[in-house]
């Protein structure tokens, strides 16, 4: 299987992913598929409008074969840098046949809406008022504009973020500042799980969760904030393997 995009070529053979790119200085990367810890789709808001995306692998580093020029040492490998979303999954599914790549069930609790931006908004507003008191008033208007953008972005977070659990595979979709990040990973790749909740979240029956996977020679955290407590507890049971969940 071959995909080319401006000298970017991906081939797969014998459980090895071979990537080459570059015009004058050609880079060649070989990634054993068994080192892949997660598959990540990164899609900016602009790319989403036109149906394009990019696919990346999160991998572990081979410390027995250390090479300071190895571009995989940070644990991120770009597999498909710029491609139509539908075509991307047509290509990536045969490369990772053990993964289902289910769609994410989007939607987060509205009770967590203001929590995504109120601290930043408060800091901006207080800072702008102080500046306006000693200098000019226009920073206040700028702060109000930024707060409005943050509030709008939080609506997108609520509507578009989410997760799907299907058997031993979990999909988590995060809304970032300039786009979306969707991470697919298997139960057997998990190193740990962390739950976080303060009294204010407990009162609203909300909870934060983070799953930990290996990345390069370290680790990476993948999670969501302000989830329904019952859903997070179900994820905890899945992580601990107390019962089998076909889907949530």
Automatic annotation (TrEMBL):
Residues spanning the membrane: 116-135, 141-158
Alphabetized UniProt keyword annotations: Membrane, Transmembrane, Transmembrane helix
Identification of the protein by name: Membrane-flanked domain-containing protein
Listed InterPro entries: YdbS-like_PH
Domain spans labelled YdbS-like PH: 4-78
Organism (species): Staphylococcus gallinarum
Matching PANTHER family: UPF0699 TRANSMEMBRANE PROTEIN YDBS, UPF0699 TRANSMEMBRANE PROTEIN YDBT
């Amino acid at each position: 299987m071959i995909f080319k995009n401006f000298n970017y070529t991906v081939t797969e053979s014998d459980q090895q992913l071979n990537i080459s790119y570059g015009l004058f200085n050609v880079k060649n990367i070989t990634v054993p598929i068994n080192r892949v810890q997660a598959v990540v789709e990164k899609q900016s808001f602009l790319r989403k409008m036109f149906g394009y995306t990019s696919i990346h692998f999160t991998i572990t580093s081979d410390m027995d074969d250390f090479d300071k020029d190895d571009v995989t040492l940070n644990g991120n490998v770009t597999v498909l840098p710029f491609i139509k979303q539908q075509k991307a999954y047509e290509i990536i599914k045969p490369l990772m046949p053990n993964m289902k790549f289910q769609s994410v069930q989007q939607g987060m609790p509205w009770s967590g809406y203001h929590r995504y931006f109120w601290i930043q908004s408060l800091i901006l507003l207080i800072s702008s008022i102080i500046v306006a008191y000693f200098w000019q008033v226009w920073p206040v208007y700028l702060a109000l504009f930024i707060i409005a953008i943050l509030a709008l972005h939080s609506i997108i977070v609520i509507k578009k973020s989410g997760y799907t659990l299907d058997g031993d595979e979990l999909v988590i979709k995060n809304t970032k500042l300039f786009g979306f990040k969707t991470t697919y990973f298997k139960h057997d790749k998990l190193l740990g799980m962390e739950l976080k909740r303060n009294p204010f979240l407990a009162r609203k029956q909300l909870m934060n969760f983070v799953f930990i996977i290996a990345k390069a020679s370290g680790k990476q955290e993948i999670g969501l904030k302000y989830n329904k407590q019952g859903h997070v507890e179900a994820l905890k049971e899945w992580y601990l393997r107390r019962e089998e969940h076909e889907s949530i």
